[in-house]
Amino acid sequence: MHTAEKTKESHGLGNSWQAVRLVMPFFRQYRLRLLIGFLSLLTVNALQLVIPRIIKHAIDGLQNKSISPETLMQYGVMIVGLAVCIALFRFGWRYMILGFSRLLEKDLRSWLFSHLLTLDRIFFQRCTTGEIMALATNDLAAVQLAGGMGLVAFADALVLSLAALSFMAYIHPGLTLIAIVPMPILALLTRFLSGRLHRTFKRVQEQFSNLTEFVRTSINSIRMIKAYTLEKKQTARFDTIGREYVRHNLRLAKVQGTLFPVSGLIANSSMLLVLLFGGRLTIQGSISIGDFVAFISYLFMLTWPMMALGWVTNLFQRGVTSLQRIQNVLDQRPVIIAPSQPAPIPEKVTSITIKNLTFTYANQSDPILQDVSLGIRQGIVGVVGKTGSGKTTLSHLLARLYPVAQDTIFWNDVDVNRIDPAEVRKKIALVPQDGTVFSDTVRTNITMGKPGATQEEIETVARAAALHDEVVTLPQGYDTRIGEKGVKLSGGQRQRIALARALLSDRPVLIIDDGLSAVDIETEHEIIGAMRSFIRDRICIVVSHRLAPLAQADHLVVMDRGRIVAQGDHEHLLQENTFYATIYEYQTSRMGKG
Ligand SMILES: Nc1ncnc2c1ncn2[C@@H]1O[C@H](COP(=O)(O)OP(=O)(O)OP(=O)(O)O)[C@@H](O)[C@H]1O
Ligand SMILES: [Mg+2]
Question: How confident is the model at residue 571 (pLDDT cuts 50, 70, 90)?
């Protein structure tokens, strides 16, 4: 992890600039907010610098007894007034600039999210969910920190240190030179220590995510833990992770504990120099006591900017590294893209033809589908075959989720590669095996492909999917919330919701990839029967492990190890294909016994 980051950091300046260019448009977009913010910041600094000047006048006045109590009072009121103004403008810059950094984070996150949705499945198989989540949380946070606090601290440190230095030089240039001798050491030291701080902090965060991940998986698999009586073991492991977390936190405390005292020490050594040399100048009368006190105030003002410069360099480095990671994803392009001059999609899809289709997954050497040829017409086509024979792969290729070679899949007579993939997908309804439901109401889940569908339409598809009778028994019927935060549904119920969604979307091609596997066999029978009248002139591909319900299909295909080994109707296959006949008999005789 650590070394990976090192190599990333040493990518070079050009690359860093490219990453920074990514956020430039946002700086332009929010320029007014930034302008107000930085002007407020400048005002705060200017006001802060005035206070030592007032103190100087007060002290000098006191020393030569030329000041009246009233004037002193006035000075006091002025300082309080300045403090109030400082507070107001400080609120102003915080609100504006930190607000900017949050907006920047939000915009980048939305950009990243919308971009992710354009990418193909191939990308998501290369990149784990954890990596994407880290990008959307840790990396964006680093950019936010650099673009907010980092920028503020940088501007602040620059202005404040320049101003403080000028005021100091105005009081006494020589003394100023002496006083700032230890300052670069402070900046370097902060840079070194904050680098360590960052690495330690990262380990604390990693350990923390281990902790949360452990809790998450334990709670998710609580049934397994109970069933295998693993409670004690899990608790012990949790304790170990907890101990590690404490260990890393203590290490963090050590680094933090060094940073501030050490920088205090260096700042105080400046003070030593000033007392030594400045004191002598004051005694000699080269500078007044008031100047001497003001000088010391400015010196204190310088401590923070010097520390900030070291800290900020680190923040910027982390921000840029994170930006590069984000840019990496934003640079990804979908593999399946529309040709420059796409052929129009057939108005009415009457057939899909597969010709000598061979397919290999990107990360593998052996083809999963070999020389598959199949003519699919309107009606129900059943696909059966052993597990791993390539049924899902075929469904996904038909749904344009992976790229296919030229002239292998045709819609009517048009090669799909010549059609805009988005247009193709718009014509397809896919029901995957896991029956994806979203954390929302049953209604929203069903109407996803056709928002604004009438209650009647919804009920019709729900009946066809053998779902209606169960939905009406739910607490709020079709308006019951399901998923994570709602009513928990069975696997079969989820599958039938996914099916109802596909049926309602009214698309000419319906692909059900083992989408009824968690439904009992009688219901599956019923559903496929209902679908026959429902799909009329659509193309419907149904993958299933159970042959009996599929016997009603117009055409059946048997797959084995990536090849189509037999096809025809039920009667034909029963005669001609031993695999089909054996499985059919096995399944039906078992059903009879059950
Ligand atoms: N994304 C992938 N990357 C690499 N190999 C894959 C991928 N998906 C599936 N495979 C491999 O392709 C082969 C066919 O898988 P596929 O999911 O198409 O089979 P299936 O017929 O749908 O099986 P099941 O009946 O169990 O659902 C398997 O050997 C599997 O390991
Ligand atoms: Mg499958």
Answer: very high
Rg for the chain, CA atoms, rounded = 35
Question: With a 6 A CB cut-off, is 125 part of the ligand 1 pocket?
Answer: yes
CA 321/CA 15 separation, integer angstroms:
10
Q: 34-48, 402-416, 480-494, 566-580: which range is least confident on average?
A: 480-494
Ligand 1 pocket, 390 CB below 6 A?
yes
Describe the strand order of the beta sheet including 409-411 as a list of residue ranges.
Answer: 369-377, 351-359, 409-411, 414-415
Tell me, using a 6 A CB cutoff, whether residue 389 lines ligand 1.
yes
Ligand 1 contact, 126 CB (< 6 A): no
Residue 102 or residue 551, greater confidence: 102
In 172-230, alpha helices (H) = 173-179, 183-220, 222-227
Round the average pLDDT of the chain to a whole number and report it.
88
Q: At what angle do helices 31-63 and 69-93 cross, to 10 degrees?
A: 160
User: For residues 571 and 480, what is the distance between their CA atoms, to the nearest angstrom?
Assistant: 44
Q: Where do the DSSP E strands lie in 319-467?
A: 351-359, 369-377, 379-385, 409-411, 414-415, 428-431
Dist. CA 543 → ligand 1 center (Å): 13
pLDDT digits (tens, 9 = 90+) for 416-463: 999 999 999 999 999 988 778 888 999 999 999 888 899 999 999 999
Pairing mode of beta strands 539-543, 379-385: parallel
C-alpha–C-alpha distance, residues 408 and 417, integer Å: 9
Per-residue pLDDT for 591 more than 60?
no
Which residue reads 């290490």 in tokens? 251
Domains of the chain by start residue, with CATH? 15-330 (1.20.1560.10), 351-593 (3.40.50.300)
Decide whether any atom of ligand 1 lies within 6 Å of the 361 Cβ.
Answer: yes
Among 55-69, 350-364, 558-572, name the one with the lowest average pLDDT.
Answer: 55-69
Round to whole Å and give the CA distance between 239 and 234: 9
Taking the CA of 383 as reference, the closest ligand is 1
Say what the pLDDT of residue 13 is: 54
Which residue has a Cα nearest atom 22 of ligand 1? Answer: 392
Say what the pLDDT of residue 485 is.
Answer: 67
120 lines ligand 1 (CB under 6 A): no
Task: Name the residue with the closest Cα to ligand 1, atom 8.
Answer: 393
CA-proximal residue: ligand 1, atom 2 (nearest):
361
d(CA 200, CA 245): 11
The backbone torsions φ and ψ at residue 357, rounded to the nearest 5 degrees and listed phi first, read -85, 120
DSSP assignment letter at 342: P
Nearest residue (by CA) to ligand 1, atom 31, is 388
